[in-house]
Design brief:
DNA-binding, 3-stranded antiparallel β-sheet
Chain lengths: 174, 174
DNA sequence: CTAAAATTTCAGAAAAGACAGAAATAACGG
DNA sequence: CCGTTATTTCTGTCTTTTCTGAAATTTTAG
């Protein structure tokens, strides 16, 4: 696929952003390319456009599929896999947040819970430390409870809530 | 400083989490250690406790200072620097979010704005792509506007809003 | 000003991560 | 089945990041 200068820069920028957030540069670039592309692309085209090895595209796509950020499509008379990305930014962020929560926050919560349980009968660890870990757990729990309560709200409601943010604050803050 | 098994595991876990989110493992470990430590620690003690080179601590601490996640303190009769971490998880997350926004989101916003401007007179790039980039920008702008509107609310108000999340949704959702 | 202590800088080693290309596997049409 | 095409896996190489230890610098007390 031919990239115009702006598309080129967009993809490069996205790759850099990705690597800052712990996402493989190639994976982020593939995602950016598919996000922009007007039509589904097959692996070879992705490899050629981004100038990376075909095998890397395979691995990258697999990861994006696992994240549900990319879907496979097919065309009649062509047995290759074609890929499209989720194009709605809200949906993209939702899927990423949900994925990171499941893969990173939930295990951390579980970990902190076992810590807190163990600490109940652990006289070795100073009380201050115990409180600190408990506080951390409580914080994360509050945050995830909130996330759970809003994550399935319809987009419109969410938008309204976001726009009203400050006004609501004034009302309930007295 | 002597680490109990739970403290040890906590620090290791935090280091792993950090590296998943693009934060240097040692830096995350130093932060975790200071977060738990009942009293300020000096660089040598941190190096010894975590089993890393003194120089590494120096660099790590510098970064944490730049992020405002750690402060320097002193004691009479001791000219070494002692370090303490911000202990309030809410404040920790606020500082991190604010920092990443400033260093990563804001530049991305600026970048997208120049893209959109350029695209106005760019007939080479397909209209679909232009719309996609504009959509991305609008999305990020909505998100940051919301963030700006709530970031300075007092903790209490924020907590109330979070607890009310679903109820508010019902009211304004009609 | 000097010497000791504390800290930082920096160059290179070590480790981790990303990548290419070959080989293996799978899917498909005939 | 067989040959072809598409895809994936795997291994070694290359790049980048992280880390160390020595040297340089800064700080401080006397």
């Amino acid at each position: 696929m031919r990239l115009t200068p702006v598309m080129h820069r967009y993809i490069v920028h996205w790759g850099e952003m990705g690597s800052r957030w712990g996402i493989n540069r190639s994976v982020a670039q593939i995602h950016a390319l598919l996000y922009l592309a007007p039509n589904p692309l097959h692996a070879d085209e992705i490899a050629e456009t981004l100038g990376i090895a075909r095998s890397n595209v395979s691995v990258g796509i697999k990861e994006l599929l696992a994240w549900d950020l990319v879907q496979v499509t097919h065309t009649l008379g062509d047995r290759r896999d074609f890929f499209v990305a989720q194009r709605d930014p809200w949906e993209v962020i939702r899927v990423i947040v949900e994925g990171r929560k499941r893969r990173e926050i939930d295990p951390t919560l579980a970990f902190l819970r076992t810590c807190v349980t163990e600490l109940e009968t652990d006289s070795e660890t100073p009380a201050e430390v115990r409180e600190r870990i408990a506080g951390q757990l409580e914080f994360l729990e509050t945050l995830t409870r909130w996330y759970d309560s809003i994550k399935s709200l319809p987009r419109k409601t969410l938008l309204k809530m976001m726009r009203l943010g400050q006004k609501i604050a004034k009302v309930i803050g007295e």
